[in-house]
Amino acid sequence: MAEAHAIWQGLKQFEMLGIDEVTIFGDSRMLIQALNTPDRIQNLKLTCLIKRIQLLSRSFRKIEFFHILRTLNTEADKAANKVTLLNKGKLHVNNDVRWAHLH
């Protein structure tokens, strides 16, 4: 669910910025497969979120979803850890979109 929310939020940001070609790399094979073949989703909550992502995806000229192995996705893991800290209130940012660096 967290990765699906991250994709949805990321796509909303890309749309706001006027980006019309997007390639998404994710290490959740189930999620990437669900985005590429939505008829196979069995989790109802995930199904609703996948449908929202697909609806939003229509606003892009080109969008692709690729699975990569978790061991090759260390940068995404670092970003996910930052978001986890943000959600726990340990990292504070203003309303501007900025990269936060944690030490």
* Strand adjacency order, main sheet: 1-2
CATH superfamily label of the domain at 2-71: Ribonuclease H-like superfamily/Ribonuclease H
**Cα-based radius of gyration, to the nearest Å:** 14 Å
End-to-end span in angstroms? 27 Å
Number of strands: 2
Taken as a percent bin, the fraction of beta residues is: 5-15%
Helix content: 40-55%
SSE run? HEHHEH
Which fold does the CATH topology of the domain at 2-71 refer to?
Nucleotidyltransferase, domain 5
For the residues shown, what is the average pLDDT? 76
Give your account of this protein's structure:
It is a single chain. The protein has 103 residues and is mainly alpha-helical. The chain has a two-stranded parallel ribbon with strand order 1-2. Residues 90-103 have low confidence and may be disordered. The two termini are 27 Å apart. The longest helix is centred in the N-terminal third of the chain and has 15 residues, at 2-16. Helix 1 (2-16) runs parallel beside helix 3 (44-57). It has 4 helices and 2 strands. The chain has a domain at 2-71: Nucleotidyltransferase, domain 5, CATH 3.30.420.10. The chain has helices at residues 2-16, 29-36, 44-57, 74-87; strands spanning 21-26, 62-67.
